[in-house]
Amino acid sequence: MPAIKDVARRAGVSVATVSRVLNDHPSVRAGTRERVLTAVADLGYRPNAVARSLRTAQTRTLGLVISDVLNPFFTELARSVEDAARALGYSVVIGNADERPDLQDHHVRTLMDRRIDGLLISPTDGGSPMMSAAARAGTPMVFVDRWIEGEGLDRVPVVRTDGRTAIRDLVAHLCALGHRRLAIIAGPAATTTGRERVDAFRAALRAFGLALSDDHIGQGDFQAGSGRRVTARFLDLPHPPDVVFATDNLMALGAMDEIRARGLRVPGDVALAAFDDIPWFLHTDPPITAIAQPTGALGHAAVRALIDLVEGRPAESVTLSARLVARRSCGEPEGSTP
Amino acid sequence: MPAIKDVARRAGVSVATVSRVLNDHPSVRAGTRERVLTAVADLGYRPNAVARSLRTAQTRTLGLVISDVLNPFFTELARSVEDAARALGYSVVIGNADERPDLQDHHVRTLMDRRIDGLLISPTDGGSPMMSAAARAGTPMVFVDRWIEGEGLDRVPVVRTDGRTAIRDLVAHLCALGHRRLAIIAGPAATTTGRERVDAFRAALRAFGLALSDDHIGQGDFQAGSGRRVTARFLDLPHPPDVVFATDNLMALGAMDEIRARGLRVPGDVALAAFDDIPWFLHTDPPITAIAQPTGALGHAAVRALIDLVEGRPAESVTLSARLVARRSCGEPEGSTP
DNA sequence: CTGAAAGCGCTTACAG
DNA sequence: CTGAAAGCGCTTACAG
């Protein structure tokens, strides 16, 4: 591949001049600029981004570490992040943590080694030494969807969805349909969304005069397998719950697997609801009631906040709202659209 | 962030020695190595990958350009690619083309600018100038899933799945269930998988003495919207088909949307089958008959081939086989598992 | 308006 | 076994 000096030679100028043309520096005579541009085109020259990054100490690249690419929610988030970043002239490099703290650390480290300009993280777990190190090193960082506490992490803006109202709406919906024994498949306690959704659920139940007994809280890990295991435990109870609320769509998938394997019916034998909405929920048997996040807006807001930080402007935390989409998996909704 | 000279100063050696320790060069005295390692740990030093890449002319990074991240097939492919690459000491940077040739070119260009060591592409369309340029520049390249023809592209190894046998199995299955009017939602003609699946379908029909009339071939683009539009056209026909075969899972989603919107039943009013299997197909109403690709193996084989090329070894094309997973969306399968 | 020169942070022959 | 020096491909003050 041709380098800048090849262009300079062909255009009969110095590399400094070529660089100026490439960077739209105003002080280049029109004729010179022409010759340089022709040489660039003739050679098919493209500046080496590696060299440029080394020299300018910026990579125009954002790192995005997500907990699980196979989770449609995160896939969509990643996509909207990439869209927003590209519109602002940045690339994004994705690291998939697979809900594993060690993999998460691996990606944060790798991204830091590549000197990305900023880090967008949906953290998978508590103590992450690399994340604290990144914060300490002054790397611009923004949490998206989830956040964790840790040394140096308290100043990191959080761009997230608040599901409390939607969860209360869900509980109201369930009560209206006559359900009283509600159970929840929680996400990892180390995760804010994991805790928050359980807290909101418990609070909503209390508001409706219901209790959340310990055997109706199942510990999941946001993966399908755990949803299935927890559901099995629920259904083995002497008094099984009459509705299971999975706090993410993958665990809802696992719950469906288990319910189906037992030949039970939704919502007749047990009702089902999920946090996070996905297109297929419309076509399951029955269509699944879910809480939808404004994923696109979330990704855009997170990128905006991060780039503000990267470019030296202050950034603030952002909280968006989720909303209930009632379908038929909890019983026939009263006249609402499917 | 500390640089190599800071480590050298603290350890009382030259930067050359620090570099040797970092790269496991054998000729460093044990005591010196100790001191360097201590300095590295004390400072929390991490080599700047940008500088290293500039100097060594390799980035230990692979570029992966996929047609659509939101398609679960590609998400899974991306994940297996990342897994395989990481195991071999490479990172991967993903570019999502969204089935848009311009975006595809944008990503190929960006990746080339970053001097990735090799390119894994699932091309979205015909003529891509950047891809030819990359090939001409001698960048190691491998096509995965799909491939295109073009200048300099004929030597690029292809790692893909052959669906012909599975499609024939599907047609046999459909015939056995009494279906005779079969229709197909094709992918973009510019795409090899798009053409191939139609060809295989037509050939299989012929083998069973059936014809594929033109109004039973709908042109889709591998996105849900097109699946819906094409299905609408099929259902508006004076003699609608009795089975619709969507050549990817997103178009199957669109087909479901349309069928459902019309209040029709699967498979009673119209049967449905899809290329590419996804977990939710088990829980739709009814569960959807699909052709499953060995996605994990595909990703691994593609990475292996690409890294062979990158490291100067020859690489060969690989073809894996898909298999039919019969469920209930085409009628009650004869004793096969759901 | 343009060029010569320094320097970003590394690695690696070349000496010793 | 270790160091001084060159150089990867850029950008950017500094001169002129």
Automatic annotation (TrEMBL), chains A, B:
Question: Is Transcription regulation among the key words of this record?
Answer: yes
User: GO MF terms on file?
Assistant: DNA binding
One of this protein's Pfam families, by short name? Peripla_BP_3
InterPro entries assigned to the protein according to its UniProt record, in alphabetical order: HTH_LacI, LacI/GalR-like_sensor, Lambda_DNA-bd_dom_sf, Peripla_BP_I
Tell me which SUPFAM superfamilies the record gives.
lambda repressor-like DNA-binding domains (SSF47413), Periplasmic binding protein-like I (SSF53822)
Q: Where is the HTH lacI-type domain?
A: 2-56
Q: Cite the entry's keywords alphabetically.
A: DNA-binding, Repressor, Transcription, Transcription regulation
Q: Does the keyword Repressor apply?
A: yes
- Name recorded for this polypeptide: LacI family DNA-binding transcriptional regulator
Q: Which organism is this entry from?
A: Streptomyces luomodiensis
